[in-house]
Amino acid sequence: DAKTTQPNSMESNEEEPVHLPCNHSTISGTDYIHWYRQLPSQGPEYVIHGLTSNVNNRMASLAIAEDRKSSTLILHRATLRDAAVYYCIRTNTGNQFYFGTGTSLTVIP
Amino acid sequence: DAGVIQSPRHEVTEMGQEVTLRCKPISGHNSLFWYRQTMMRGLELLIYFNNNVPIDDSGMPEDRFSAKMPNASFSTLKIQPSEPRDSAVYFCASSKGQGGQPQHFGDGTRLSIL
């Protein structure tokens, strides 16, 4: 049970912003929202996480809806190196992460 | 800083043989996770440890699989006897504390059982 819903695939032009959506309509008040990405032949890489407020770091921004039932990962300027599978995960005070099928992002030069 | 270190990177062996995968977590991290990734099932959590104690092993597929963490800097995942359907990429990850803290993954072990 992945507990989140994401589109299977998305495309973006290089140098343009990318908005990757995630639905987590059954989220509880203590669940964190995590985003990871996986490049070919590599392990998943942490991108960003948050609880209620929007979050920014050097890699991306995370916009969390006011009701917390959805979130959006924002890559401000897509590069070819951002082509990967992006996973949206919700996790509570326990440490179990349930990876769904993720969104495969293609970046077009 | 060194990340999570897994060995071997690749393992090819015949069915029936014992397979041991190794993981060294990031120093100071007290939670350790073993995952398996296949095309059919995606990334699955097999087991996780907190402070060297197994907390949840409900993802371990069957008794042929076992995992140990004898100390804070080392863990093993063992398959005995191995079967072709165990072929997958096995990842180890570690995190600091609980409460949904980020997990840091190793590069994985690609296991092929012939």
List keywords for this structure.
heterodimer; A: 109 residues; mainly beta; 5-stranded mixed sheet; 4-stranded antiparallel sheet; 0% helix; 46% strand; B: 114 residues; 7-stranded mixed sheet
Description:
The complex is a heterodimer of chains A (109) and B (114). By secondary structure, chain A is an all-beta fold. Chain A is built from no helices and 9 strands. The mean pLDDT of chain A is 91. Chain A has strands at 9-13, 18-23, 32-38, 45-50, 55-56, 61-64, 70-75, 84-91, 103-108. The termini of chain A are far apart. With 114 residues, chain B is mostly beta strands. Helices cover 0% and strands 54% of the residues of chain B. In chain B, the strands form 2 sheets. In chain B, strands 2, 4, 5, 6, 9, 10 and 11 form a 7-stranded mixed β-sheet that branches. Chain B has a 4-stranded antiparallel β-sheet with strand order 1-3-8-7, with no helix packed on it. In chain B, a hairpin with a 2-residue loop joins β5 (42-50) and β6 (53-56). The termini of chain B are far apart.
Topology, please?
The complex is a heterodimer of chains A (109) and B (114).
Chain A: E1 9-13, E2 18-23, E3 32-38, E4 45-50, E5 55-56, E6 61-64, E7 70-75, E8 84-91, E9 103-108
Parallel strand pairs in A: 1-9
Antiparallel strand pairs in A: 2-7, 3-4, 3-8, 5-6, 6-7, 8-9
Chain B: E1 5-7, E2 10-13, E3 19-24, E4 31-38, E5 42-50, E6 53-56, E7 65-71, E8 74-79, E9 88-95, E10 104-105, E11 109-113
Parallel strand pairs in B: 2-11
Antiparallel strand pairs in B: 1-3, 3-8, 4-5, 4-9, 5-6, 7-8, 9-10, 9-11
